[in-house]
Amino acid sequence: MVQQLRKSITTLAFLVAGGLAAPAGFAQAPTSPLALKADAPERYVVVPGDTLWGIAQRFTDSPWRWPELWGMNKDDIRNPHLIYPGAVLVLDRTSGRLSIARGEAGTVKLSPRVRGESLAKQEIPSIPPSLIEPFLTRPLVVEPDGLDKAPTIVGTETDRVILSAGNRAYVRGIGDSKEQTWYVYRRGNALVDPDTNQTLAYEAIYLGTAQVTRPGSPATVQLTSAVQEVGAGDKLVAAGRAEAVNYAPRSPAKQIQGRVMSIYGGLAKVGEAGPQSVISINRGRADGLEVGHVVALYTRGGTVRDVTKEKRAPDSEIKLPDERAGLAFVFRTFERVSYALIMQITRPVSPLDVVRTP
User: Fold this and answer.
1) Residues 195 and 222 placed together within one structural domain of the fold
2) Domain check: are 231 and 265 in the same one?
3) Where is average pLDDT lowest: 29-43, 47-61, 218-232, 304-318?
4) 100 & 169 share domain
5) Residue numbers of the domain that contains 20
6) pLDDT band at 45; cut points 50, 70, 90
7) Are residues 234 and 280 in the same domain?
8) pLDDT value at position 78?
9) Do 270 and 324 fall within a single domain?
10) In terms of pLDDT, which residue wins out, 324 or 13?
11) Which of 71, 82, 252, 323 is most buried per CB count within 10 Å?
12) Distance separating alpha carbons of residues 80 and 16, to the nearest angstrom
């Protein structure tokens, strides 16, 4: 059970490169050629704080199609090359290629290799990591019965009703696990598929972090942090070890048609998502969504009355088309639910709005 509940930290990396040929290994070819921006710089120096999405937008309005420009196959996507601050990107408009300058010897194509780097020199991330780190290091959702068998707080020191950082608790279900660090959770709101009205999962409310101080049954843990009140009945999930997963942004290889289920962040209270908001989608791994996929967002078209017809005529109501609202970057997937960061937007996005392959 501990292994099933374990989640990994995802790190982000994306190859910056160019070329107009469609790559091998892609199931779906774009219907239109990729255009470079007229004002794209001939040379660009990568600086700390850059993101690969942001760099991509300097050169094209379709950043999710950069793997196509480079001619990346599926293996390249799962193990993309890395770009570091200080790299000089050179654009050849004749060939439509973007390459990295290597001193006076000219430019070279990026290729996989092992290299020693100072820890202070970090590769450029795909999207701003500070916006999604909490979503990467902790579970966001659980299956309807996903926490039922998880280790449970069954008692507290001196019978405290509410626990905070520094307090101890007694946990049943850790057993002989060697894990030392655990996240504390409580099941939250249901994530309901707006198309089928089926509960796909529940939000997992993060409460804090606990450290095992004495194994056994029950085991003793000490809360090392608490962002909300913790009490008896709350569940523990093993933190596990960080597992790096590199990926490149790209369009899904199949047609995706889904809906926005919920919004995280300050705008969630008013029911609208803006730039850099996190949204949940009613499609996941079972539907073909993967980490790194870019999806298009559409606001649902309303209905208007045809003023040329009688008010009560059967065909007096006209359904307006859905309007494209922006793009979102899928950064975490579950079996039937995914989470994405809104990257570009022209109008606010709301729950029930449409998600499609761009």
Assistant:
1) yes
2) no
3) 304-318
4) no
5) 7-104+121-126
6) very high
7) no
8) 59
9) yes
10) 324
11) 252
12) 9
pLDDT digits (tens, 9 = 90+) for 97-137: 677 776 544 444 444 443 444 434 577 777 777 777 767 66
User: pTM of the prediction?
Assistant: 0.70
Domain endpoint, select from 93, 126, 159 = 126
Q: Of 55-64, 193-202, 239-248, 270-279, which has the strongest mean pLDDT?
A: 193-202
Residue 296 lies in a domain: yes
How many whole angstroms separate alpha carbon 72 and alpha carbon 248? 9
Assigned domain for 90 exists: yes
